[in-house]
Design brief:
Length: about 280
């Protein structure tokens, strides 16, 4: 089911998104050679708690009885998504790391009452969800890695500009595919963007590549939809594989992978990025 959010609900999502963006900036600034991802996790948990939120990904059910162990999806080098921040791993010069974070906010009844905010009836805690990520260079990185980061960010920025009422999912996916494949990179097809707000992951699926134009999945965007656009781009093949832990997704050829994401509202006259400070 695709949920249409009210203007009041979108404003709460924006408030949470601003907090999440500040947390992500703090994490990004903490990345350097020698840093332990477990220390990044501690920063995340502390800042989310202080803000009155709840990490969206920690203990998230991955299927098969597996629950994601950390609040940050910390995916390093050939890890496309779902790399765990704990147990900790030491970042090395030349690495790239995708910091993917989500939060439900606010989860305390007193804070909602104080701010006069609506309650999300779809969640027991009553807060609204935001989701965002960036891929960060650890010290000095290779030319190939820098190109991958630049192109993936360009894919996100250009595809966001396609969002408006009446646009279709293929307007987003076609934009990402053209830019990424034009640079010689692979667009991951096994993982897609999604709706967000009432839940951490909702309909619709947001494809970062062209699908059959006549498919029902190539749906029309409508005012009030809130979606996550999150191109995942590999330096080599578009194919992926699952690591032995059962949840980390890797590029099939072990090439570098990058990932950028924002939470976006479809507005009457275009789009609004809700995960900006």
């Amino acid at each position: 089911m695709i949920y249409i959010k009210s203007k009041e609900e979108i404003e709460v999502i924006r408030m949470g998104g601003k907090i999440l963006a500040r947390i992500l900036r703090t994490l990004k600034e903490a990345v350097r050679p020698g840093v332990d991802t477990a220390d990044l996790e501690k920063i995340m948990l502390s800042m989310v708690k202080e803000a009155g939120g709840r990490p969206a990904f920690k203990d998230y059910p991955m299927g098969g009885g597996i629950f994601f162990p950390s609040a940050i999806c910390a995916s390093i080098n050939d890890e496309v998504v779902h790399g765990a921040a704990i147990p900790g791993r030491i970042l090395k010069e030349g690495d790239i790391i995708d910091l993917d974070i989500g939060m439900e906010w606010p989860v305390k009844t007193a804070l909602r009452k104080e701010l006069g905010l609506p309650v999300n009836s779809h969640s027991p805690a009553g807060g609204f969800y935001t989701d965002m990520c960036t891929t960060v260079a650890v010290g000095r990185i290779s030319g190939e890695a820098q190109k991958l980061l630049t192109i993936t960010k360009e894919c996100l920025d250009a595809s966001i500009k396609k969002v408006r009422p009446g646009a279709r999912i293929n307007d987003i996916g076609g934009t990402v595919q053209k830019i990424a494949e034009g640079a010689g990179f692979g667009v991951v097809r096994d993982l897609v963007g999604h709706g967000v707000g009432y839940l951490a992951h909702e309909d619709p699926e947001v494809y970062h590549f062209l699908i059959n134009e006549k498919s029902s999945a190539n749906l029309e965007l409508k005012t009030g939809m809130v979606i996550c656009i999150e191109p995942m781009i590999n330096a080599g093949t578009a194919e992926v594989k699952v690591a032995d832990d059962g949840f980390t997704i890797l590029s099939a050829d072990n090439s570098l992978s990058a990932h950028f994401e924002h939470t976006i509202a479809v507005t009457e006259d275009g789009y609004d990025i809700l995960t900006l400070e």
